[in-house]
Amino acid sequence: ALLDRTDFAQPALFALEVALWQLWQSWGVLPDFVIGHSLGELVVAYVADILDLRDACGLVATRASLMQSLPIQGKMASLEVSASEAAAVIAHLGHTGSVEIAGYNTPRQTVITGDIDAVERVVAHFEKNSHKTKYLKVDRAFHSRNMDAILEEFQATAHTIHFKPAKLAVISGLTGKSAMPGELEVAEYWVKQMRQPIRFNDSIQEAASEGVKIFLELGPRPVLCGLGVECL
Known about the structure:
Layout: H1 6-26, E1 33-35, H2 40-47, H3 53-69, E2 74-79, H4 83-92, E3 99-106, E4 109-115, H5 116-128, E5 133-135, H6 148-158, E6 169-171, H7 187-195, H8 200-209, H9 223-231
Parallel strand pairs: 1-6
Antiparallel strand pairs: 2-4, 2-5, 3-4
Helix pairs in contact: 1-2, 1-3, 2-3, 3-6, 6-7
């Protein structure tokens, strides 16, 4: 049950993914590009040597505890629809602002986030029209305006950290494009990364456009592998 709590889940994910990275690295398997999905992008920052392990752990712990400190006033859900369909229904129901897109996961899977009642109305609309929906195991609206209350404190912590030039090619989950030199090496990037939607679909397509043929997921379950196939 503790793993359903953000302040436990995020450090646990970070620890597991870093350990898996070190295992594969010990076998001589090294990536041409690295991509992170939400919290996973902080693993990427460590893997690419943008952050040393101590600073990465500190930033993850701060991020997780601040998110956990938010009032329980939000909900997130995955919808088997395109982002444009989701946005159109959100606008049609009058929930622009109270419901936002949190993740562009695939061309046909979109994650929404926002106020509880508003998210439930959007989900009910799609269920009524025979679309698959699934609520995420969170009780806060991550990647939404509900995060705004903690951004200043998170940025203050990020400003105390020393960022280094990336040693691996990173595809940004914030932009869905290959990161430019210096783009990830500033505190402001990680504040936006926590608040703005995840562009996983664009990131996978960017990797494919760069000639990537083999994708390896480092995590507790092969969730992103399934999404990645849909992206391609």
